[in-house]
Amino acid sequence: MKKVEAIIRPEQFPNLRSKLEEVGINGLTVSEVAGCGQQGGKQGVFRGTAYEIRLLPKVKVEMVVEEEHVDEICKIIQSTCSTNTVGDGKIFILPIENVIRIRTGETGNEAIL
Ligand SMILES: Nc1ncnc2c1ncn2[C@@H]1O[C@H](COP(=O)(O)OP(=O)(O)OP(=O)(O)O)[C@@H](O)[C@H]1O
Ligand SMILES: [Mg+2]
């Protein structure tokens, strides 16, 4: 099992959500976050203007999925969340040790969906 953690532009989320539903991904956690990447939160560059580091609003989407679904999900994220400009976001993939559905005690892959 893996956790796919995507930091995306907030305005791309509705589109991503409906595409994920189409392929049967229903379990997810969404947070409003703030962050910056290699531009340090700068949205434009003007000669002679001093910038401070800024934090831009982003949405973090976390999905724990079976490993075999990771590639498909990453492709969906890329195709729905790319505007081909800086700040489109990033995907992090983390190992997951176990999942337990609290109600039933099911574990592992049975507890994911
Ligand atoms: N190394 C990182 N660790 C944790 N969060 C990150 C990291 N890089 C980016 N993020 C998060 O992702 C958001 C979007 O990052 P962003 O798309 O600007 O990445 P980037 O590396 O600057 O790429 P680009 O040049 O395409 O903008 C950031 O606001 C931040 O929340
Ligand atoms: Mg950036």
From TrEMBL:
It holds the Pfam family P-II. SMART domains: P-II (SM00938). This is P-II family nitrogen regulator. InterPro entries: N-reg_PII, N-reg_PII-like_a/b, N-reg_PII/ATP_PRibTrfase_C, N-reg_PII_CS. It comes from the Bacteria. The lineage of its organism: Bacteria, Bacillati, Bacillota, Bacilli, Bacillales. Belongs to the P(II) protein family. SUPFAM superfamilies: GlnB-like (SSF54913). It comes from Bacillus carboniphilus. PANTHER family: NITROGEN REGULATORY PROTEIN P-II, NITROGEN REGULATORY PROTEIN P-II HOMOLOG.
